[in-house]
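Aim 2 progress update. The chain analyzed this quarter is reproduced below.
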Amino acid sequence: MKNIGKEVLFLEANKNIPRNGEGTFARLSDGRIIFAYTEYYGVDWADDAIAHICASFSSDEGETWSHPMVIVEKDPDAENIMSPSLFNIADGRLGMTYLRKFELPDGALTCMPMFISSCDNGKTWSAPVCCIERTGYYCPQNDCVTVTKEGRIILPFSSHRLYRRRGGTPGADEPRTPEIFIVVSDDNGNSFKHISTVKSPFDDVVGFAEPGVYVHEDGVYWMYCRTAYGFQYFSVSADEGKTWTTPMPQFCFTSPDAPMKVKKVGKYTVSVFNPIGYYCTRNAFEVWKSPKRTPLVCAVCRDDGRSFFPTPRAMANGALLDFEKNTYLLESDKGESYCYPAVIETKDGFLVSYYHSNGTGICLNSTKIQKVYFDELE
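Predicted structure tokens:
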């Protein structure tokens, strides 16, 4: 498998910044690229530790980057804000969703998706608006928002039980098995509505998590999600997300319990994920005893993602071998871990950001950006 890409930015964690988090990209109206990410600036790197959102900017298609700066600070009542997703709104504004954590009076921790927008390329932002009415613990992945050619904003996320740091009993309306919510805005972010739920076929506490939605050129929605079942699972909607097919494993995408990213870049559709082949027989685990997320690969197709769904006939004729021929290594060091990718197109290729364990046993550590050139895929 061929290695591709070159490092263009590495945001290293240190004693003052214990975690540089999941990131997201957008193209600004002046042509620059913004990269926003979560910066943990306290003494802990846990998901509920204090954090805000920082950004760096590039004026040369990702080759060099400005010094990071804080662009969104958490409010006083929040535990933190994290996991941003940038996107271009149809009316010309820059949009962002992120997660806001806060504690309820009974000690339960919530995690709510928020929306803000900017009219000045991220210098200032509107007041945050919650994207769903019901209080809960919701987990979109970073860089997860899709905007259709008609301007619809699609925000998929998983719904979980509230996080109870001091014990307590889950409420009757809290799902035992995590499930996927599809939330959309058809008015440029002025309002959001929950249009459908995709449930796991398994009655367990694993379920589905951190989904993404890719919209094919013919308007069909492809939803993929993280599982602990050895594969990314997928479901398809032919009616703009109102109903979905029964979720099934996507056999091309073997995967540990880690999210995948699928984006259109130029004539290509790319998928960035962790295959399981390198470590399925190795006793290699993160500090929380989950399998290492390594290596990190990029699968490429030229038919709007259709090759990622081989037919039974194609499977019988070596479709997975063809898939491997069009899959490239972004990271191959099996001693490291990589996760939570984000992708954006540049004039000459695309950028990929992700967590890098940076020699530690913690994959949620530092953040790296690689630039891949289209010439490397020919």
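The first helix runs from residue 312 to 316. The two ends are 14 Å apart (CA to CA). These observations will guide the mutagenesis experiments scheduled for the next reporting period.
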